[in-house]
Hints:
- A hairpin with a 5-residue loop joins β11 (218-220) and β12 (226-229).
- The chain contains 9 helices and 20 strands.
- It is globular and about 70 Å long.
- The model has no long low-confidence stretch (mean pLDDT 96).
- Helices cover 25% and strands 25% of the residues.
- α4 (232-248) packs across α9 (413-428) and α5 crosses α6.
- The chain is of the alpha/beta class.
- Residues 80, 233-234, 265, 311-312 line the site of zinc ion.
Amino acid sequence: MTDHVKDLCNFLDASPVNFWAVETTRRRLEEAGFTELDMRERWTIAPGDRRYVVKNGSAIFAFVVGDGEASDGFHLIAAHSDSPGFRIKPNCEMPCEGGAVKLNTEVYGGPILYTWFDRPLSVAGRVMLRSENPLQPRSRLVRFDRPLLVIPHLAIHFNRAVNEGNKLSKQKDMLPVVALDCKESKGLIRRLVAEELGVDEAEIIDYDLSLYNTAKAETTGLDGEMVCSGRLDDLSMVHAGLTALLEKADTRSAHTRVLAVFDNEETGSGTKQGAASPVLEHILRRIVMARGGDETDYMRAVADSFMISADNAHGFHPNYGEKYDPTNHPTLGHGPCIKVNANCKYMTDADSAAVFAEICRQAGVPCQYFVNHSDVAGGSTLGNILTSQVPLRGVDMGAPLWAMHSACETASSADHRYTIAAFARFFEM
Length: 429
Ligand code: ZN
């Protein structure tokens, strides 16, 4: 069996941006015999079927149909495909002194800006190409595997106070340089994409392109106990859910097992492929209907379901102990965390926490709690947003990380193995 941490590193390297994370997931599902369903068509599905649905190329929903009745519940794991970073704007080329060209970008979500300085970066995403039908442009994925850009920091000699805190402008400080002596900057990115895809430049109508950190995912620490990579939030949870689903796809269960990977969590989930849309609700409902169930069966299935909303948590940072709750500060390497918030920013309650804790116990996995320091506002995640669409019973959890939203985050190798073991146990039930 492949080592789960090595496999995570391969998964991260193959998934530089949301569209590629979904493509990597899709390929692995196809290899395991999953076939795609089209939301525009009628579905026929039978117990044991392995199916998936892609939404917008950036969200994916895979499921193994249960052996039970249409009214039997779903066992779901939800995660997200997107990570904070930089999107390339239209008309992006900005010619500068001496023939240098920088690109105009817009910040996506909440990255730690200065972690993006002074490292080789590249470009990946989706390109829309002309077709016969204006309503259906062709979509092609693109990624440049070689470094193409850098965001150079200002030398310390121009700002001696830089280490005392340095406010950054997203529009001035963060623009990447792509060339030093370019004769024709206009349309440069389209020319590069056309060349990479082997298409005529005139075919390219538009693009969703992002920057990514070209550094490969790797382990560090005395015994390789830490994993460093961009996009661990939340692709490590996508990988854990996918791995568990594939490992347990042959296990018979009355419940339909679902992996739901949403896009745009980092910007509040408010898109058609995000958790605030009814996309998951539509899919669950259609699974019940395609099995001959009616509206009542759908509601019975929802009432019988359980969801693990998997998004990374903040691990206790040895340099910043004061930022953490005095009694609930998960440490890296000691298991996945149940996230708790008194004001219901997380969907966890004692009932769902008890379920997850028992799943961990049965899987032989340690489990921790994450609660915010009461004077520190925390982030939000998928669970609560999802329950406004489908009133699911469920828990918010995640493996602990350091430097969440850095261009290079750090997680624990052991926690990744623990998380997969817990998810695998859940998907057996
Ligand atoms: Zn996240």
